[in-house]
Design goal:
Helices cover about 40% and strands about 15% of the residues. By secondary structure, it is α/β, with parallel strands linked by helices. The protein has a single domain, classed as Alpha-Beta Complex (Spore Coat Polysaccharide Biosynthesis Protein SpsA, Chain A). Helix 2 links the parallel strand 2 and strand 3. The strands form 2 sheets. It has a 7-stranded mixed beta sheet, sandwiched between helices. The protein has a two-stranded parallel ribbon with strand order 6-9. It contains 9 helices and 9 strands. It is globular, with a radius of gyration of 17 Å.
Length: about 250
């Protein structure tokens, strides 16, 4: 039996978390588990996560952090926690229903032959929210094209955060070197996976706008992502040289 653990970072997701947990537990997967990493949400998300853990003691666990410490560090802590708990596959997703839970079985099927399966907005059949205005769709597509081009990445969706990893692949990644802590964290992991020669498969998804709660995306986060993408080129020179010249 394959153990899949969904790592869900939360900050003010009290409205979404119980609904998402219910949707995940309705999936036809026999050993699906949740690990919630909460950054001391002032809206009470942490206690709600604890209620879920009490209701499902063998399927839900919670990591409480003292404050808003960032998306990247939340995921890394969650990845390590999931692996320590014996996960064979580790899935990362947002708590706001922008990532469709019903696609998780398809990711689980795809990862049987690869190291990481990506929920992708930018392969055939993928789509962003049809209600988005043209400027927002353009900004999203350009940000993805920008990072993909600078880092010479073969995957189409390098900025998305809906991914399932083999635990063995995560153990090969130098997570202690990952410095990105905002949304560019997703780009950094995609870049690392490419440098390490991981096999990747993209599964088309419909990326919906959040149903409840307030978006955490901002201009500051987008500027940080644009600047930090360039810094990634120098952060892994040793891996990049080996990737370009495998005989070194």
């Amino acid at each position: 039996m394959v153990k899949i653990t969904i790592v869900i970072p939360t900050y003010n997701e009290a409205e979404n978390l119980p609904k998402l947990a219910a949707a995940l537990f309705d999936l036809p997967l026999s050993d699906l588990n949740l690990l919630v990493v909460d950054d001391n949400s002032p809206d009470g998300t942490g206690p709600i996560a604890e209620d879920l853990a009490r209701a499902h003691p063998k399927r839900v666990s919670v990591i409480h952090r003292p404050g808003k410490l960032g998306l990247g560090s939340a995921y890394i802590q969650g990845f390590r926690g999931a692996i320590d708990q014996g996960a064979d596959m580790v899935c990362q997703m947002d708590a706001d229903f922008s990532h469709p839970p019903q696609k998780i079985p398809e990711l689980a099927q795809a990862i049987q032959s690869v190291d990481v399966a990506l929920g992708s907005r930018y392969v055939a059949g993928g789509q962003v929210d049809e209600r988005w205005p043209a400027w927002r769709k353009g900004l999203s597509a350009f940000g993805n094209f920008y990072a993909r081009t600078i880092l010479a990445l073969p995957v189409r969706d390098v900025t998305g955060g809906f991914r399932m990893w083999r635990a063995s692949a995560l153990l090969r990644m130098p997570l202690e070197r990952v410095k990105s802590n905002g949304y560019v964290f997703q780009v950094e992991l995609a870049y690392l996976a490419n440098l390490l020669g991981f096999k990747v498969k993209e599964i088309p998804i419909y990326f919906a706008d959040r149903r409840w709660g307030k978006s955490k995306m901002s201009v500051r986060i987008q500027v940080e992502a644009a600047l930090r993408t360039w810094l990634l080129l120098g952060s892994y020179l040793d891996l990049r040289k080996k990737h370009l010249n495998p005989n070194l």
